[in-house]
Hints:
This protein is an alpha/beta fold.
Amino acid sequence: MASKQRIRKAVIPAAGLGTRFLPATKAIPKEMLPIIDVPTVQLIVKEASDSGIEEVIFVTGRGKSSIIDHFDMHTDLVRKLRETGKEDLALVVEEINDLARVTSVRQQEPKGLGHAVLCAKHLVGDEPFMVLLGDDLVNASPPCTQQMIDVFEKHQKSVVALQRVGSDEVTDFGICGGQTIADRVYELDSMVEKPSEEDAPSNLAIVGRYVLKPEIFEYLEATEPDDQGEIQLTDAMARMMKVDGFTGYEFSGKRFDAGDKFGFLQANISYGLKRRDIAPRLKAYLRDILNN
Ligand code: G1P
């Protein structure tokens, strides 16, 4: 049965225009904006790879080829680095290729997240898979994707990552309701995309990590676009939940909204404070500016 299969594939939707980050994203995909010196998308692929994912499927759009280039072999660069004695950098570049096998498909029309996932149907096939959204960076050990896969293997139902948010923030997320069935684990009974404060079933927000059974594609195909013309992943999941059940998991770790200007700055500072080559100077600098 498909649900007993190991999770080997991850879909990363990366077709969005990145309007929240203009003008930086006028000619550069938002996924390539770096946290210190590592593109956000590489951190996401690393999380997937560290969790046992072998194949990453990017759903891209116009102007996004640099994402695919980034995960391509660059033998000339590696050779040049070695010839000039920069072995450490050669390894840094080579490591990118070892993360996962990368394939891609284009989303031809901007028809929302659900449609983007549907574009990967033929590359995913008949097996459960991960979806990772590039805006959500999660610093966690074990990685958030690994935590989700563990929950899926235990409960054998599709899983969404959840995080509690303030009641004034529910309007920015998919929001879930349900009953606790184990520590941090919920059996979900409702999912609403960006509800009003009054309509929100709880303050448990969907963060961009999903384990989905392949049946989701049938539900996506049957989902009508919303009034913005977008096919919402949450709408398809909500209908699948009624038939197949759905698990919510309040992951442990720190999430950053890297698609938001302030969240991006927070992520840079937080990841910087964990980097041995940056942390001492960054701490001294922060102390200095906060005291003056
Ligand atoms: C998407 C999903 C939403 C989810 C959010 C997490 O929304 O539609 O359900 O809560 O990602 O980041 P977006 O932020 O793309 O509008």
